[in-house]
Amino acid sequence: MNRTSADAPERGRLAYILDDEPEIRELITNIVTSFGFTARAFGQATALEMALTETVPDVIILDLSLGDTDGIDVIRSLAASRFGGAILLISGRHDAKTIDEVSRIGKHHGLVMLPFLQKPFRLDQCKQRLSLLTSIAPASLGEAALESALRNNQLELWYQPKIGLKSRQVCGAEALIRLRHPTRGILLPAEFLPRSGDPLHHPLADFVMRRALTDWLFFAADQITPKLAINMPISIFETPEFVSNLRKYLPSDPNFPGLIVELTEDEVVSDPDLAHEVAIQLKLYNIGVAIDDFGSGYATLDQARALPFTELKIDRSKVDGCASTPEQYLECRNIIDLAHRLGMIAVAEGIERADDLAALIEMKCDVGQGAIFAWPMQRDEFKQWVARA
Question: Which of 80, 100, 135 is the last residue of a domain?
Fold first, then answer.
């Protein structure tokens, strides 16, 4: 889609409107239509989600308070479906601090969030927000951006703390890749990671490994010695160079607690023999293996018994809402029980709600991570955060 720099939004664009008040839906529909948009309005989130399976709009105008749900649930759903358009939050009931937090949640999930629009609003305010669509680049920059970032030192690792749910102390951190783009700012992995099997995974994996180990030394200089976890595609271990380099760069510091390599559940399912071989080899160097996103496919449950892994990470789709959804509660509890029977640590990822955290503690989950504790943060900020914790 061509981008323009006109004052008004580009004609022919599509806007979806989700608001549970019919009068507001009609008003906003008339406004955005007058700006040259084609508009569709919805009173329920389920109707919007059905429409998204047919056509993806350039922008969704989203009321934060909805009768059958709320804006945060819609944001999570849009993130899960990898929605590539922009979101314009509107509300007449919430203060600016609350709105900023909701917008931050959207950005954390990799969504494009336009500046908030307070009800009642003027026509020029709405027009100004929508005109920003002309400056938004396509959602994904793809492999060219990654290749450039590797050459120009634009990649970073950010760290999300892992918290022992019994001690409430920091017990580790997951290293998460970010790309600092010269014009678009910080990009999340979905915007630049290559396809499975792409050769760029090899230099990327090497960068992640070396930077994580370098950062651990940076933390250790201030007596902060977290056990770091890095994400790797299993195909990386089919080449001897990666393990050779990993062995070479492991810190000799006696306080080094080892490393965790996270493999996704689908990779373990697709090649359990290789996963077993990788786990055994890494164990020789005090490196554990975690099954990430566990619970998204139960084919792994039986296979997990035969794999010498260290952690089971419960998929965020199971964690979110586990306190209020009996089926999810049971699934989480079964995964935690399985981990303990196999001598593994159960880690819940993506914890955002206090009631879910309480439920996980009740289930005797060992470790948690998520926005309820802290968002991923840059290396220096992480060190300061741990020092204060």
Answer: 135
